[in-house]
Amino acid sequence: MPAFRAGHRPFGSSFVEHYRGYNTTQPSFEASGKDYVICKLYTPLGQSLGWMGTQSWGNEDEYYRRRYLSSGYPGTFQQRPAVELDMGLRDIDNDSPGKELEFSAAGHPDLGEGWSGGPLWLPAEGPTVVGVLSGTEKDELDPRFLVFAGGKGMVDLVKFGLDNWRP
Q1: What domain range is 53 assigned to?
Q2: Three-class SS state of 155
Q3: In the list 7, 54, 110, 149, which could disulfide-bond 134, CB 3.0-4.6 Å?
Q4: Following DSSP, what letter does each residue of 33-94 receive, concatenated?
Q5: Quick check: is 30 in a domain?
Q6: DSSP state for residue 123 in the 8-state scheme
Q7: Is the pLDDT of residue 126 over 90?
Q8: Separation of CA 120 from chain center
Q9: Would residue 6 count as lying in a domain?
Q10: How many domains does the chain have?
Q11: Arithmetic mean of pLDDT, 114-134
Q12: Does residue 11 belong to any structural domain of this protein?
C-alpha cells in the first residue's frame, strides 16, 4: 500500500493474485539472502504510480562503493512511513542465488518491527531496489547486523514477473 499512513491509502491497495519466491529451509526467525517474493496484483498499482527497477552485481565492490536508502513502516512510527538515509554496507554473505547485504544495526534503531520487507534502494539510479529487509543476525563476536536479501535471485524473480505477469 504505497504511502499508507495511519489507515489512509491515498493511492489505493490491491490483493495478490499470484506470488513466487524461494522456499528457504531456515527457521522463519533467521535472516536469509533469499527472503523475497514477487506478487502479481489484481490491480497493478505500478501502472498509475510507476515502477522501481532492480539491480544486482557480480562484483562485490559495486555494492560497497554505494550509499543506500531504505523505506518502511516501523512500529515506532505509528503506521506512518519512514526513510533511513545514507546507509553504508558493512559485509556481504553469499546465499546463492541471493546475497545477504549487511548493515550495522547500531546506527539504524528504527529498522525493526514493521520494517521487514522494506526495500534497500538507490535513488539516483532509477530508483533501483537492490534488496529487501530480511531481519538481523549476530555472528560470534561481530555486532548485530541488519540483513537485506538481494542479489541475482531477487532480480531473476522480477524478470520472471515481467516476462509472465505483465499487465
Answers
A1: 16-164
A2: helix
A3: 149
A4: TT--EEEEESS-THHHH---EE---SSHHHHHT-EEEEEE--GGGSS--EEEEEEE--EEEE
A5: yes
A6: S
A7: no
A8: 5
A9: no
A10: 1
A11: 90
A12: no
Over its C-alpha atoms, the chain yields an Rg (Å, rounded) of 16
Are β-strands 67-72 and 53-54 bridged in parallel, bridged antiparallel, or unpaired? Answer: unpaired
Backbone angles phi, psi at 68, to 5 degrees: -115, 165
Alpha-carbon distance of 166 to 18, in angstroms, equals 12
Apex CA 157: angle with CA 152 and CA 162, to 5°? 120
Give me 17's grid cell: 493474485
Structure confidence at residue 72 (pLDDT): 85
CA distance 82 to 138: 25
Return the C-alpha cell found at 153: 535471485
State residue 74's pLDDT score: 79
Q: For the domain that residue 149 is a member of, what is the CATH number?
A: 2.40.10.10
Give the predicted TM-score (pTM) of the model. Answer: 0.89
Within a domain: residue 4?
Answer: no
Count the Cβ atoms, other than its own, within 10 Å of residue 11: 11
